[in-house]
Design brief:
Strand 13 and strand 14 form a beta hairpin. Helix content is 40%, strand content 18%.
Length: 347
């Protein structure tokens, strides 16, 4: 996967905001194989920075403690940077609901700080990481991520420097911190029933490797204001739970607790309104930004048909649905599940 991006990343200085998170760790492991000049890990958590430094033990890595809310700290880290991956965010839906202004400060104002300092420092390219929850948002996390996208698009339209700004959207990344798979595994280890919200609820399924591939594709192919989506299958919550129950030979059963505030039955990666601006790029979709210069008459007789997307958009309900066996195969491919299985079998 990484080989096609090596030439673009060779001898480049790369800044990753929120770099001590799941995405940061995954992308650093790949970037170190591409001979970058330097990788700057920017985050608030000094303990995770210390652990990450020990894990990779590379003189290519530089750690900067700071917060995207503080423009001075991100400006300090931005000096001499070629590429930026903006991953710093408040991502937990309940926390954002309880503390909406904190989500605004990090996800919107923090993103604006990253974008503006990148422009001021003549960075070559910036990729902001968004989520399916930003499409038709019904919770604070999705609303603030949608605003982040708009901040990026507005800044790209102004074109105040050579900096190219683009973004990515993806759904659930399997076994990342705070996601449902490690939550289910913890319940299995505690011998408690797996708590699901609604049996028919669907979610996109992506691996960390897929998310890294999408961001690198956007970095090397994106133009101003574009947002990239990687095609991904989905699964129902009940099938995901049953797959884990089968993998761990678990007898604890399932408990349905009902949909919580801020949750959808199905997620959307491309809205029906964006269909007319979405271009099929084989494994990806490219969503071009709205522009007053576009003649929408050209789309009256094309659009959904031209890019193969259904009229309601690209959702976890109408994408490829994984069978129970396919979900099990996918889960068993994850290193984290392999480790958990070994530990589980010893107990």
């Amino acid at each position: 996967m990484i080989n096609q991006y090596k030439q673009s990343l060779d001898n480049k200085t790369i800044l990753i905001t929120g770099g001590t998170g799941s995405f940061g760790n995954a992308v650093v492991a790949e970037l170190l194989n591409c001979h970058p000049k330097k990788i700057i890990i920017f985050s608030r958590d000094e303990k995770k920075q210390f652990d990450m430094g020990n894990k990779y033990n590379s003189d290519k890595l530089r750690f900067v403690v700071g917060d995207v809310r503080d423009k001075e700290s991100i400006n300090y880290a931005m000096k001499g940077v070629d590429f930026v991956f903006h991953a710093a965010a408040l991502k937990q839906v309940p926390n954002c609901e309880f503390f909406p202004m904190e989500a605004v400060k990090t996800n919107v104002l923090g993103a604006a700080n990253v974008i503006n300092t990148a422009i001021d420092n003549e960075v070559e390219r910036v990729v902001v990481l968004s989520t399916d929850k930003a499409v038709y948002p019904i919770n604070v996390m999705g609303m603030t991520k949608a605003l982040m996208e708009r901040v990026m698009i507005a800044a790209s339209r102004e074109k105040r420097s050579r900096t190219i700004l683009c973004g990515t959207r993806y759904g659930n990344v399997m076994h990342t911190r705070g996601s449902v798979i490690p939550f289910f595994v913890d319940l299995i280890k505690a011998n408690k029933p797996l708590k699901i919200t609604n049996k028919q609820m669907t979610r996109f399924m992506m691996s960390l490797a897929d998310s890294v591939d999408l961001v690198l594709y956007a970095l090397t192919n994106g133009q101003d204001g574009e947002i990239f989506v990687k095609k991904a299958p989905s699964a129902t919550v009940i099938d995901l739970a049953q797959a884990l129950i089968s993998i761990f030979s678990y007898q604890g059963g399932v408990e349905e607790i009902g949909i919580r505030p801020g949750e959808k039955m199905h997620e959307t990666l491309i809205s029906s309104e964006e269909l007319f601006r979405a271009e099929d790029c084989q494994n990806y979709f490219r969503i071009k930004p709205e522009s007053s210069k576009i003649d929408y008459r050209q789309y009256y007789f094309q659009g959904a048909k031209a890019n193969s997307l259904p009229l309601e958009g690209y959702t976890s309900q109408n994408t490829q649905r994984l069978s129970l066996d396919e979900i099990k195969t996918l889960l068993l491919s994850l290193d984290e599940i392999k480790v958990e299985l070994k530990l589980f079998s010893k107990n």
